[in-house]
Amino acid sequence: MRTPAESLPSTGAGTAEGVFNQQFIAQLVDIGFDAVVNVALAALILFVGFLVAGLARRSVKHLVEKNPKIDPTLANFFGGIVRYAILAVVGIAVLTRFGVETTSLVAALGAATLAIGLALQGTLSNVAAGVMIVFFRPYKIGDFVDIADASGTVKDITLFTTELTAIDGVQITVPNGQAWGDVITNYSANPTRRVDWTFSISYDDDIDKAMQVLRDTILPDERIHAEPEPVIVVVAHNTSSIDISVRVWAATADHWAIKWDMWKKVKHAFDANDIEIPYPHQVEIHKES
Prior knowledge:
The protein is an alpha+beta fold and about 290 residues long. The chain is about 50% helix and about 20% strand.
């Protein structure tokens, strides 16, 4: 089979200059042909590599999610590691395709890693924090948390960021470095939570009667736990009201539903028992001219 160089017509045959030109052109054609082949093969390697990396990530994620013994939070984490590992091998294969030797490549990668590490300290700290979050699990997917001055339900945890969905549906992306380096409040971590209310009554009302109305209204709800024991106590004598605090325990999933339900039920119960809930009054004095 003839190469592209062999198929070229001769130019200036019989002279030294013609031979030199022919050889030079042949070399250029051979180099160009090799370059085209290498570029095409490199593009094919990249295409297949990205395809395989994506498939591997999804497969690992699916296998982890199917295993009941493994936390679902680890699915994206392990999937991401597999994807980046495959892409690193693909990158080495592409460079090798262009004649870069493995030994020199390792040395270059070492120098590049140091330079990149210095330049991307913040990004690498996010990766390190992501590893800490995944393995120590201060929160997991589905938890409602406060992290880095942001509140929401954890939707995803990647190597670099934690994605939250706020209560109004807004997406919030928090760098893992900020999440791990700040106070983390996880409202979903424990199976039970305390529900607190403070109800105000007038100084003219009977305190014992008001406290009994609160017991009869709140405590019979089947969602409220008997242990720890509910607490109903007077907590303050304010300028125009007496404040009564109610503290009960319930399942974390029922916390907000109970809290909202009782605000309405207690108002109806106070009205039915002629117990006044004080509110500011404005008195206008008109002077006769």
